Amino acid sequence: MLRIDLTRADAETVELDERIHPTADCCGEDVVSPGEVRVKATLERGEHGYLLHGTAAGTAVLRCVRCLGEFAFAFDEAFELRLLPVELAPREEETRLASEDLDVRFFAEPWLDLGELAAEQLQLAVPMKPLCSESCQGLCPRCGADLNRGRCACPPSRDERWDGLLDFRPRR
Predict the structure, then answer these.
(1) What sign results for the dihedral spanned by CA atoms 76, 82, 85, 88?
(2) By C-alpha distance, which of 125, 127, 131 is closest to 64?
(3) Closest residue by Cα to residue 15 from 43, 48, 56
(4) Most distant CA pair in the chain, distance
(5) How confident is the model at residue 47, as a pLDDT?
(6) Which of 3, 51, 68, 172 has the fewest Cβ atoms within 10 angstroms?
(7) φ, ψ for residue 105 (rounded to 5)?
(8) DSSP letters along 52-115, please?
(9) How many other CB atoms are there within 10 angstroms of residue 67's CB atom?
(10) How confident is the model over 55-74, as a mean pLDDT?
(11) Can you tell me whether residue 11 is helix, strand or coil?
(12) What gap in Å lies between CA 30 and CA 61, rounded to an integer?
């Protein structure tokens, strides 16, 4: 865990350039192993709290959702985060959030865990459905063979429910 004291930005702008190694369990089931994440950011005092903006770049090994193979993934994402004291957090049980409220983090103690931030940025960069390639053929639904390596031994199947459409001809 790499903690940054936010009060350092009270006097002057703080430049951060840290290399962080997130833990393997940080990023969900599609991330086989996270690599190093480099966080380059600027921390400055804001009106009610602090503003952190910069980039998070790194690598990871992901699992393809079609063929279950592993592949390398690289990302380089910009981020902006407003850090506000917990006293400014909404008190209502249900609150409608605006788009600018999504990049806010509330703190009780004036410090930021960069390891947590790096893991979060990696999670946000991972696609919803990671694919090793757009042309990935996936696995055979019957025998489980990887169709990217060639055809399997299963005979071609035909769904008889569609047979009626074989005789369909557009009317002229």
Answers:
(1) negative
(2) 131
(3) 43
(4) 80
(5) 83
(6) 172
(7) -130, 135
(8) EEEEEEEEEEEE-TTT--EEEEEEEEEEEEEEEEGGGS--SSS-PPPGGGTTEEEESSSEEEHH
(9) 20
(10) 95
(11) coil
(12) 9
pLDDT of residue 46 exceeding 80:
yes
> Which of these, 62, 59, 40, 45, lies nearest to 117 by C-alpha position?
40
Helix (H) or strand (E) holding 14: strand 14-20
Residue reference for tokens 């990049």: 103
What local confidence, expressed as pLDDT, does residue 50 receive?
Answer: 92
Distances in Å between the Cα of 23 and the Cα atoms of 34, 54, 60, 85 are 7, 22, 11, 27
Residues 105 and 84: their CA atoms lie apart, in Å, by 6
Higher pLDDT, 161 or 131: 131
Bridge-based pairing of strands 3-5 and 14-20 is unpaired
- Any idea how long the chain is? 172
